[in-house]
Design a protein that fits this description.
50% of the residues lie in helices and 16% in strands. It has helices spanning 14-25, 38-50, 55-63, 66-69, 74-95, 106-120, 123-138, 145-165, 169-183, 185-219, 234-243, 264-277, 319-327, 329-342, 350-353, 359-370, 374-380, 408-415, 417-421, 466-483, 504-514, 544-556, and strands spanning 226-231, 255-261, 279-280, 286-287, 300-305, 311-318, 389-393, 399-403, 423-428, 431-433, 445-449, 491-499, 519-526, 532-539, 560-568. Bound molecules: manganese (II) ion (MN).
Length: 569
């Protein structure tokens, strides 16, 4: 028995040593499947390798079951492999004590997830644990029924959500789908039976849409890297069906079209072309590029009335966004390593790190920016970084994580900018508290708002999050502007009338791109004879000199007839 894994590492490396060591330690053990136990260790290590983790992680993956299952001790590992690998193996061994309680309350489950993270001290431990769990789930059918159910519940409730929060959506979906038949067997059977026809129909339909879409894009000189279809995963479909009264007709993303392009500007160009061709379904447009999901997910989602007036969801993203969506934190590792190899400068990380509000993952990215070299980055992960975070609860039992020292005002802005702006009071565990009171983990926080109320400068003295600070400053700016008798604005809108031609939209988005202005909304309309069209572009509020630059650039684009702009609240 040997593994292709070994070919990636030199003889005598920690990976080779760990391989031999674990193979020997487990030599008498069998899995319930009848396979030698060591096959499990190889599988886990191969997954960790595929996720691009470092050598220490792969060695730890090979060794992860040695301490508990064999006569090997902690001291043996430390002596043979050194502190780092020993630390990872120790974390993995300790994690085994975590037991999913039966009939757990949602709060308990949430705490358990946090426990896994904080207990691990190093995110590599969590990631190796996830690889371990993936293989256990793939081989769950060999276990006795009772253990199957327990492990499946634990996977669905603890590990799949953890993977999701680390941005590893593909893994999260896989873990959920592997649990599904064990935790809801009847519903699973029902779903598989009832969905198969719908899936086939939708897939056929999507295949019909693709050529029309590609034609339209190429008319605008857009060549996507890839267009493919993605079928919704069973468990996620099941959860959505429960929310929509088990009505398949309401699930527009049963099969979605996914368009992968080269740049962010192109994402919006593609969106423009699609909305020009097919009417968007009202209020089904999500711009996760301008506003990523808390786990870092970025993409444009739109739902349109497509060919034969059927409703379909279309997702648009860049290759980098795609990899991040699938691999999350592991993708960042891969980028990190690739860039270190290619000698990229720190500057290249700005775009990744400053992008947005990213809760757990946000911190990691900031760290990556601070640690452009891989060694230091890995070092930094060894700190228990969650000790700097607190977790408080909304009245709806949603968990909000904030930096230590955060106040009710930070909390309010984390919920919604409007709630922050209009916040006049706060209750902690149902008792009224001052707005500058420090919050602590486990507290239930409620915000009292008053319509039309604006923040005061005083808040800047005590808020802890950049998010709150930013919103307060901009609200204060608007207040002064309003006082001066000018209209408060929240974005700038450009209206362009133009002669329609292929590539026009792309030129428009490129113009904004060159000026480093983020487009937050883009819509275009063409008259039926396709001689004349109008484009509406919105961006953040721009200064007069920036607006001037935009106007100059837009007017230079061949085909532009007229450009106007306004501030919109
Ligand atoms: Mn294991």
């Amino acid at each position: 028995m040997s593994s292709a894994l070994l070919d990636h590492y030199p003889a005598g490396s920690a990976v080779h040593k760990a391989y031999e060591f674990a193979k020997n330690a487990h030599k008498d053990d069998m899995r319930e499947s009848g396979d030698p136990y060591f096959t499990h260790c190889i599988e886990v290590a191969e997954t960790v390798h595929a996720w691009h983790l470092d050598e220490a992680s792969i060695a730890a993956a090979l060794l992860h079951d040695t301490i508990e299952d064999t006569s090997v001790t902690f001291a043996d590992i430390e002596k043979k492999f050194g502190k780092e690998i020993c630390f990872l193996v120790d974390g993995l061994t300790k994690l085994k004590v975590i037991q999913y309680p039966e009939d757990a309350e949602s709060q308990e489950v949430e705490n358990l997830r946090k426990f896994v993270i904080s207990f691990s001290k190093d995110l590599r431990v969590v990631i190796i644990k996830l690889a371990d769990r993936l293989h256990n789930m793939q081989t769950l059918k060999f276990l006795p029924k009772e253990r199957q159910e327990k492990i499946a519940w634990e996977t669905a409730e603890i590990y799949a959500p953890l993977a999701y929060r680390l941005g590893m959506q593909k893994l999260s979906g896989e873990l959920e789908d592997l649990s599904f038949p064990y935790i809801h067997p009847e519903e699973y059977r029902w779903l598989v039976e009832s969905v198969s026809d719908s899936y086939t129909d939708r897939l056929k339909y999507v295949k019909r849409v693709q050529p029309a879409l590609l034609r339209a894009l190429s008319e605008h000189n857009i060549r996507p890297l890839r267009v493919d279809s993605r079928a919704k995963r069973y468990y996620s479909l099941y959860k959505k069906l429960v929310r929509y009264g088990m009505d398949f007709e309401k699930i527009y993303d049963l099969v979605a079209l996914r368009i992968i392009v080269k740049t962010v500007e192109e994402c919006y160009s593609v969106l423009g072309v699609i909305h020009q061709m097919w009417q968007p379904f009202p209020s089904q447009f999500d711009d996760y590029i301008a506003r990523p999901k808390p786990n870092g997910y970025r993409s444009l989602h739109t739902t349109v009335f497509c060919i034969d007036n059927k409703i379909i969801e279309i997702q648009i993203r860049t290759q980098e966004m795609h990899e991040e969506a699938e691999m999350g934190i592991a993708a960042h590792w891969a980028y990190q390593q690739a860039r270190v190899k290619k000698g990229y400068t720190q500057r290249n990380w700005k775009g990744v790190a400053n992008r947005s509000e990213l809760l757990w993952v946000e911190q990691l990215r900031n760290w990556q920016e601070n640690f452009p070299d891989k060694e230091k980055f890995i070092q930094s992960l060894k700190v228990d970084f969650f000790k700097e975070r607190i977790f408080v609860v909304t009245p709806d039992n949603e968990i909000i994580d904030l930096p230590r020292g955060a106040t009710p005002v930070d909390f309010a802005y984390r919920i919604h900018s409007e709630i922050g702006d209009e916040c006049v009071g706060a209750k902690v565990n149902k008792k009224i508290v001052p707005l500058d009171q420090e919050l602590h983990s486990g507290e239930m926080v409620e915000i009292v708002t008053h319509k039309g109320k604006k923040p005061t400068e005083d808040w800047l003295r005590f808020v802890k999050t950049e998010q709150a600070r930013g919103h307060i400053r901009s609200a204060l700016r608007m207040k002064t502007r309003a006082l001066r008798g000018r209209i408060a604005t929240s974005f700038t809108e450009f209206k362009i009338a133009n002669q329609d031609r292929p590539g026009y939209l792309k030129d428009v988005t490129a113009a904004f791109g060159e000026l480093k202005i983020n487009i937050t909304y883009l819509q275009s309309q063409t008259d039926p004879r396709r001689t004349f069209s109008g484009v509406i572009v919105r961006s953040e509020v721009l200064t007069p000199s920036r607006i001037e630059k935009v106007l100059v650039k837009l007017k230079k684009i061949p085909g532009t007839r007229e450009v106007t702009f306004k501030f919109v609240e």
